[in-house]
Amino acid sequence: MSNDQSGASAADQAEQPEQARRERLFEDLYTLGEVFSTETALFHQAAAGVYGLGITDMKALSALMQEGPMTAGQLATRLSLTTGAVTNVIDRLERQDLARRSPDARDRRKVIVTVNRARLEAGENVYRSIGEAFHALFATYTTEQLEFLARFFRAAIELNKQEIAKLHAREE
Fold first, then answer.
1. Is the pTM of this model over 0.85?
2. Domain-by-domain residue ranges, the chain?
3. For residues 117 and 102, what is the distance between their CA atoms, to the nearest angstrom?
4. What DSSP state is assigned to residue 70?
5. pLDDT tier at 14, thresholds 50, 70, 90
6. Count of CA atoms in the C-beta half-sphere (13 A) of 106
7. 66 phi and psi angles, rounded to 5 deg
8. Is 111 within 8 Å of 102 (Cβ atoms)?
9. d(CA 17, CA 2)
């Protein structure tokens, strides 16, 4: 039977293997994304342990380094913690001399939490090795591929933020 008689055009037939390939890639990407997320979380947990901290403490430190000083309330909101829990996080960071509290100049009832960058720079950096490994990996890609990866990560970060907001909306 010819293509005309079967009702499927040559373009449709050529598209079927491409569609199947895309579906396999989608599944592969979902699985790889889950595995990458898990391995990243496990790395952060191990790194936190080197500093005698928990993963939430490290995420607090990371948020402060990326986004700058915050009030304790802002940090609690950013990490989805209660005010009591964030107080404990800040206490642990202060005990390690990794962060400092200072009074908010505009509202003395609040404290501003800042990273002690001098302490971080003076101590062991457990992230250096993985940073160097990713640098070596990135060096294997073309400029166009790196631009794609940057676009992907920006979009993925935004997607994560949107999904976090959806989950928080369910709690209300």
1. no
2. 10-140
3. 15
4. E
5. low
6. 3
7. -80, -40
8. yes
9. 19
Tell me the three state secondary structure of residue 8. Answer: coil
Tokens of 99: 């962060």
The class of domain 10-140 in CATH terms is: mainly alpha
Report H helices in the chain: 3-6, 10-50, 55-67, 72-79, 83-95, 117-122, 128-138, 143-171
- What tokens were used for 92? 């642990």
Query: For 27-74, how does the pLDDT look when each residue is reduced to its tens digit (9 = 90+)?
Result: 999 999 999 999 999 999 999 999 889 999 999 999 999 999 999 999
CA 59 from chain centre, in angstroms, equals: 9
Task: Please name the amino acid found at residue 167.
Answer: L
Q: Are 101 and 112 in contact (CB under 8 A)?
A: yes
